[in-house]
Design goal:
mainly beta; binds zinc ion; about 60% strand; 5-stranded antiparallel sheet
Length: about 80
Amino acid sequence: MVIYYGVKKKLKLVSDLGQMTCTNCGHEVRAALAKEGGYVHIFFIPVFPVLTGFKMVYCPNCGIMRKLSGEEFKEMKQNNPPIK
Ligand SMILES: [Zn+2]
């Protein structure tokens, strides 16, 4: 019997940062505050979360605009409206 298992990574968008110019790709984008998380799955059923994630400013065009420290993330999260 084959058992399918592994870690599935997921990007969670936390806050809307509004329009800004991406420092990575140079496009005018609607940026978001995001953090990466993940979970271990068996047969593609999530079993438990793994906190692998780093925090970042997410660009919908190129992906990661900038990585953030915990402090920066906290501050930006407080100053921007959450994404529902
Ligand atoms: Zn970009």
